[in-house]
Structures are given as structure tokens and as C-alpha cells.
Design goal:
It catalyses: L-glutamate + acetyl-CoA = N-acetyl-L-glutamate + CoA + H(+); N(2)-acetyl-L-ornithine + L-glutamate = N-acetyl-L-glutamate + L-ornithine. One of its GO terms (cellular component) is cytoplasm. The protein contains eleven helices and 16 strands. With 406 residues, the chain is α+β, with helices and mostly antiparallel strands.
């Protein structure tokens, strides 16, 4: 365990917090008996909060889950991979409800307390009977130890499972926040083809939890990109069951700030894992922008650079083509004086005052070969800063997406 200021990282992912269990089982949606059905369960009803895709084409499970999260309480989340249950017509919503109904029945909780998420191919009817047939195995195998199986069961083109958890002290009480995520392609700010599920034993009401999630998502999941595509199923869900026994966290208090710090740690770690695991990627790109006239300008500038296909390809080729960075800044919508930016690749300055400087090409190429690749931009136009994450663009991205459905 590694100390991180007032909190520390721990093992356990989505079951690290008190009172949470998880499982992952095969339901036959993926080939070769791979895990493709995950279940998360809280031993007590929990405050619920969510953030969702901005795509106006939205999958049935997302519509169902959003309506239930709006009521403020949930106790379980059932997730399938291999089929998105998106653009499936009138059958989509009843199938999502059937997933929740079966899970609620087996868990002996109200169906309205079961949230649903799906990921995979769009436009193919969900074989819901496979899911309901596998749900007894998912409920029977719920445990603290099966967090790893759950994180594997939600993967699609991901190469690695993504888990993270922290413990922090709030008024001498230990609070745990943990989570898991999936995402590899169709990743872009304002949600992407990503799912993330966060659990905590903190006592916090749903309205305050929703406020905290919105703040944190804007600094983490909404600051990553892989390919510029935003999907139909994207969501981040948080459940807080209060089993830590702390005094309920109120907004705009020191305790709220500490909780948000822990939540941001978890969400940022998971977001960076998603960006690093981008389809075909070989390295993570981190873009740090300072000197912006507003927070919005800083964020737009940083996200624009990570989203530039030309720059992402240059990183893959280890080509210190800083003009592509300046170009991306210019079309980002951020306000700045184009005659002022300084640009660095790692510790090598490649541009000064928006123009060329002599630099060591070999040293810059070596830095572009590292993982992560760090880019620093000073717009010299204000006092605000932001960080965004992405990945390089490789030949394998085309190979993977040229045959995703077939």
C-alpha cells in the first residue's frame, strides 16, 4: 500500500469498500466462454449518482438506469458485455428491465434498486435469456474476492482490466472509495465508450453525491480521448452505502473536499487506464496546459491536443512535429494570443512565443518513445490550467476497428 498524502491506495477495486460484493461469470454473449456478465451488490441500499453520454442516441439500459438513479437510491448493478442493447427498437427497454427484474428477484431486493449497463455491438437484439439464465450463477458467486472477475467481465476490446481503490480519513473515520472501468475505443470527452462503477462506504446523500460526481467527472473521465467518438452507452455510476459509519458528508465542508479528493483520485486513475489502453495504443499521452485565461479555455486547449489525430500519429512515429500541437490549440476554441505559447516535449522546449526554436531532435524523439509522453504548453494568457490524457494512433487501431463486428 502506498501513502498518498491523507489517503492511500489499496487493493480490492469495486469491493474494497465495506458492504460491497461483486462477481463475473460467462453468459455466452462472448465467444469461448469468456466472462461477460458482472454483478455489483451493496448489502444495504445506497445513495446513487450518475453521469451519462451526451450522444442523443442512447441505449435502453442507459435510459432505464438514468431514470432509477434520479430517484436517489440503488443497491445493485448488473452489467453485460458483448452486446450494447442499443438501437434495438421496442425490445430494448423491456430486455433491460428483464435483466434488472431477474437480478432483483434473486437478490431479494426491489427491482427499482437494480441498475443496468451494457456494452458491445450496437444494433443487435440482446439475447436476454442468456443473461437471465446466467444471473443465478452471478448472484451465487458474489464475494469480496470476485472484484477481479467483475472487472474482466465488462471488458470488450480492452486489453487489461481496470481497477483502483483508496482509503482516506474523514473526522477520524476510515472511508473507502473503489471502482472499476472498461473502455478502449470510441473514447472522447463528455463520456465515451466507457463504463465506470464506483462504490464507497461513505455516508453522503444522493444530491451531494451527484454534485461531487459532476465536479470529478469534468476533471477525469471528461478529459480523456482515444479516437474522437462518443458512444451510446457511456455512464459513470456511484453507490454510497454509508457503512463506514461517518457523520453524513455535507456539501461545501472540509469533509466534502476530502471526499471529492478521494473520488477524484479513483476516477482519474481509471480514466488514465482507459486512455492508456486505447485500441492499438502503445503509450499514454498527457497534455498539461497552463497560462489560460479561464478553466474552460485550459480544458478545451488540453483536450484538443490529445484529440488531434495528426499529433497522435506523430507521437506514434516519434516525430517532434510541434506545429501539430500549436495547430490543435488554434482550433480548440480556447482564447489565447497565438504569438505567446511555449511548448515542451518533456523537458525539451520545441517552441517559444508561438514560433520555432532550435532543439535536440534525438532527445525529443527519445522522449516521444517513453510511456507516458508528457506535453507542456504555457499559453501565457492567464492563470488557469488543465490536464488531458489520450494515446497514440497506430496501425492497429484500424485493424481492430476494421473487423470489430465480424
Amino acid at each position: 500500500m502506498v501513502a498518498l498524502g491523507s489517503h492511500k491506495t489499496i487493493a480490492g477495486g469495486v469491493t474494497a469498500a465495506l458492504g460491497f460484493l461483486a462477481s463475473g461469470v460467462p453468459a455466452g454473449l462472448k465467444k469461448d466462454g469468456k466472462l461477460d456478465l458482472a454483478l455489483i451488490y451493496s448489502e444495504e441500499p445506497a445513495s446513487a449518482a450518475g453521469a451519462y453520454t451526451t450522444n442523443i442516441v442512447q441505449a435502453a439500459p442507459l435510459e432505464l438506469t438514468r431514470s432509477r438513479v434520479a430517484e436517489g437510491k440503488a443497491q445493485a448493478i448488473i452489467i453485460n458485455a458483448g452486446n450494447a442493447n442499443a438501437c434495438t427498437g421496442e425490445k430494448g427497454l423491456p430486455d433491460a428491465r428483464e435483466m434488472a427484474r431477474r437480478a432483483g428477484e434473486l437478490l431479494n431486493i426491489t427491482e427499482d434498486y437494480v441498475l443496468v449497463a451494457s456494452t458491445g455491438v450496437i444494433g443487435v437484439p440482446l439475447p436476454v435469456e442468456k443473461i437471465t439464465s446466467a444471473t443465478p450463477a452471478a448472484t451465487a458467486s458474489l464475494s469480496k474476492e470476485n472484484h477481479a472477475a467483475a472487472s474482466q467481465a465488462i471488458m470488450t476490446t480492452d486489453l487489461v482490466p481496470k481497477e483502483y481503490a483508496v482509503q482516506l480519513i474523514i473526522k477520524d473515520q476510515i472511508i473507502t472509495i473503489g471502482g472499476m472501468a472498461k473502455g478502449s475505443g470510441m473514447i472522447h470527452p463528455n463520456m465515451a465508450t466507457m463504463l465506470s462503477f464506483i462504490t464507497t462506504d461513505a455516508a453522503i446523500d444522493s444530491e451531494t453525491l451527484q454534485r461531487a460526481l459532476k465536479q470529478v467527472v469534468d476533471l477525469s473521465f471528461n478529459m480523456i480521448t482515444v479516437d474522437g467518438d462518443t458512444s451510446t452507452n457511456d455512464m459513470v455510476l456511484v453507490l454510497a452505502n454509508g457503512l463506514a459509519g461517518n457523520e453524513q458528508i455535507k456539501a461545501d465542508t472540509e469533509e466534502y473536499g476530502l471526499f471529492c479528493k478521494g473520488l477524484l483520485e479513483v476516477c482519474t486513475a481509471l480514466a488514465k487506464m482507459i486512455a492508456r489502453d486505447g485500441e492499438g495504443a502503445t503509450k499514454l499521452i498527457e497534455v498539461n496546459v497552463t497560462g489560460a485565461p479561464s478553466q474552460r479555455d485550459a480544458a478545451m486547449a488540453a483536450r484538443s491536443v490529445t484529440g488531434s489525430n495528426l499529433f497522435k500519429a506523430a507521437v506514434f512515429g516519434r516525430d517532434a512535429n510541434w506545429g501539430r500541437i500549436l495547430c490543435a490549440l488554434g482550433y480548440s476554441g480556447a482564447k489565447f494570443d497565438p504569438t505567446r505559447p511555449d511548448i515542451f516535449i518533456g523537458d525539451v522546449q520545441v517552441a517559444r512565443d508561438g514560433g520555432a526554436v532550435e532543439f535536440d531532435e534525438d532527445r525529443a524523439a527519445a522522449l516521444l518513445a517513453q510511456d507516458p509522453v508528457q506535453i507542456f504548453v504555457d499559453l501565457k494568457s492567464g492563470d488557469f490550467s488543465a490536464t488531458a490524457w489520450g494515446c497514440d494512433l497506430t496501425y492497429d487501431y484500424v485493424r481492430i476497428n476494421g473487423s470489430y463486428r465480424t
